[in-house]
Amino acid sequence: MPNNEPLAYYLRPNTLNEVVWQEQTKLSIQKFLENWQVPSMIFWWSPGCGKTTIANVLSHQLQADFFELSWVKSKKEDLNLILEHAEKNKAYWKKTLLFLDEIHRRNKAQQDSLLPFVESGLITLIWATTENPSFTINNALLSRAKVIVFEALKPEDIITFFHNNQEKIHSRYPNIEITEENLTTIANLANWDLRNACNLLESSIMLSTDWKINDEIIQKAFGKPMYYDRDWEEHYNIISAIHKSLRDSDPHAACYWIQRMLVWWEDPRYIARRLLRFASEDIWPADNNALLLANQVYDAVQKIWMPECRVFLFQLALYLWKAPKNNICDKIDRETMKDVEKYWNLPVPMQIRNAPTKLMWELWYGKWYEYAHDHPENRQADWTIKMNNQHFPDELKWRKYF
User: For 117-134, what is each residue's pLDDT tens digit?
Assistant: First the structure.
């Protein structure tokens, strides 16, 4: 393998077993291969998650001729040449696999031009797109192809990939010293993109002077100063800044800190989860809708994901800023915890215990319990009810938390 090839290309897997991510996708494709029936497919997700790699692997295992076109750069003549080649292959029962990248950049009429070849089986088409196929690919193509939704790579996927390719990396750069901390930093900066991670590793190696790389070199290769670490102090400093800015009704600062986290590829679900907590800790019951909206935003973030979900987080932050504040739930949490830790296993009063057996009833479980619905006259305007039932253990029977 020539040394001038990019590291990402040099390390590209040649078999499904070498692919250490996209487990569900691999299982589906393996079943197609076992039956020797690979349909035309649409690969959808963000860049660098393995769409082109898995298409390449498919062509190897099918022993098919593999062609790759980008619809940004290719012309109609390029496609015609491939179709002519496919016609020749057909005579020898050889498959032709065509990988079309960025299909969402072509209009519906251009997409329709592929329909006859998909239907006839002349070529097996794999389309790759980073956009939602429901909005960017016409229905005729969608109905004739299997949509495969890829997953965003986790940092641990990227680190595992580097571990598995350690020998290949050292065969190219025999003197380089790469620590586990280096790989973790690179994986966290890669934005779920394995190609980015390989390029960042290669750039860091090029910038090293003594065949050792460190965070400073990685940051120089990356091109941005690192003031945020998803696993350490700055992560918690910034989420604390968001929470306290909203508590103090400063929406400008809250939105700034949210953007800081997003720019450094923080998981948007983490931010949504912390805002969900804020809606209960600092607002309910002053505004009953805050928790409902926060929960809806959390769900919406998971459905839409980055970068479109960013606006949901700002929408929620602005709502939480305007909502009246009340920390009664947080107070109850802290005060009840104090009592639990002070007294631990206090017994439940006999009057309100459950008595599913005769023996338990004879032992006075549940005796003299007054059923509240039989005494509606005792209900108060604040929804409390005055009954003779004792609900607390004796040690706490006069306790009030709010």
Answer: 888 888 888 988 887 788
pLDDT, residue 183, reads 94
Are the CB atoms for 183 and 154 separated by under 8 Å? no
**What pLDDT is attached to residue 232?**
55
Cα dihedral value 321, 323, 328, 329, nearest 10: -70
**Do the Cβ atoms of 216 and 68 come closer than 8 Å?**
no
Q: For residue 362, which amino acid is it?
A: E
pLDDT attached to residue 230:
55
The correct CATH number of 233-322 out of 1.20.272.10, 2.40.10.340, 1.20.1080.10, 1.10.1240.10 is: 1.20.272.10
pLDDT score recorded for residue 63: 81
Distance CA 262, CA 281 (A): 23
Domain definitions of the chain by residue range: 22-149, 155-222, 233-322, 342-396
Alpha carbon distances (Å) from 335 to 17, 88, 301, 402 = 54, 79, 33, 10
pTM: 0.54
pLDDT confidence of residue 319 = 96
Question: Which positions of the chain have pLDDT values less than 70?
Answer: 1-3, 71-73, 104-106, 224-233, 380-385
At the topology level, CATH places domain 155-222 in: Helicase, Ruva Protein; domain 3 (1.10.8)
Cα gap 111→17, rounded to integer Å: 33
Architecture of domain 22-149: 3-Layer(aba) Sandwich (3.40)
Q: Give residue for tokens 């593999």.
A: 66
Residue with tokens 């057996």: 357
Residue 62's alpha-carbon distances to 27, 43, 56, 58, 159, in angstroms, are 16, 18, 10, 6, 29
